């Protein structure tokens, strides 16, 4: 099976990080975006960045920048929809999504997601927390482009929770070990960034 394309979700407001563009925050000498690109590029047929606002700030990455098709801030689900539309234009039947604030994303993410694909074609990443309870990470997922109409309807009805949308389709789960560090560690605050720097 042909490798799917992937969209890096970088359209957030970064309010807890103090504003600005989280994708371009530095972690041990490299931007978060660079780190995610380095991990995803070998796994995917093509990459795109989902971001809103000035696309020129990503010029040095030489990747397509696709904006949400919804006004205002519609969250990562709008980025997934933009990714589906872009992937469909490439002739792909599915797209992988990955949040830009997960710089330790697994180097076998795409392979494992494809192996875990559920009956409806969706697969999401998951890992156990400190208590052993499984936590879903739906921003890192595999989405069939055929779900575009359903996702657009959900967004137009006011649904913005990516996990809620995925759960309604009984997704498959690719479970990753969270030791010695959780590969889906989200960097939402300056303190998270400092902790990640100690782990690099």
From TrEMBL:
Keywords carried by this UniProt record: Cytoplasm, GTP-binding, Magnesium, Metal-binding, Molybdenum cofactor biosynthesis, Nucleotide-binding, Nucleotidyltransferase, Transferase
Domain MobA-like NTP transferase: start-end pairs: 6-162
Binding residues annotated for Mg(2+), in chain numbering: 101
InterPro entries: MobA-like_NTP_Trfase, Molybde_CF_guanTrfase, Nucleotide-diphossugar_trans
MF terms (GO), sorted A to Z: GTP binding; metal ion binding; molybdenum cofactor guanylyltransferase activity
Gene3D superfamilies listed in its UniProt record: Spore Coat Polysaccharide Biosynthesis Protein SpsA, Chain A (3.90.550.10)
Keyword Protein biosynthesis: no
Residues binding GTP: 9-11, 22, 50, 68, 101
Domain of life: Bacteria
Function statement: Transfers a GMP moiety from GTP to Mo-molybdopterin (Mo-MPT) cofactor (Moco or molybdenum cofactor) to form Mo-molybdopterin guanine dinucleotide (Mo-MGD) cofactor.
Family per record: Belongs to the MobA family.
HAMAP family hit by this protein: MobA (MF_00316)
Name listed for the protein in its UniProt record: Molybdenum cofactor guanylyltransferase
Taxonomic source organism: Paracoccus shanxieyensis
The encoding gene: mobA
């Amino acid at each position: 099976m042909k490798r799917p394309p992937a969209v890096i979700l970088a359209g957030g407001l970064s309010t807890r990080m103090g504003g600005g563009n989280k994708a371009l925050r530095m972690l041990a000498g490299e931007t978060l975006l660079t780190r995610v690109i380095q991990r995803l590029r070998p796994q995917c047929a093509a990459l795109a960045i989902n971001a809103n606002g000035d696309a020129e700030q990503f010029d040095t990455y030489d990747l397509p920048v696709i904006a949400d098709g919804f006004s205002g801030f519609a969250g990562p689900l709008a980025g997934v929809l933009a990714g589906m539309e872009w992937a469909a234009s490439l002739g792909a039947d599915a797209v992988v999504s990955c949040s830009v604030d997960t710089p330790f994303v697994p180097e076998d993410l795409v392979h494992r997601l494809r192996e875990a694909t559920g009956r409806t074609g969706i697969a999401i990443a998951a890992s156990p927390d400190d208590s052993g309870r499984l936590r879903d990470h739906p921003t890192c997922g595999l989405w069939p482009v055929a779900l575009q109409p359903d996702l657009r309807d959900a967004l137009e009805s006011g649904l913005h929770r990516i996990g809620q949308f995925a759960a309604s389709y009984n997704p498959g789960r690719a479970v990753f070990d969270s030791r010695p560090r959780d590969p889906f560690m989200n960097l939402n605050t300056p303190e998270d960034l400092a902790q990640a720097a100690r782990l690099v």
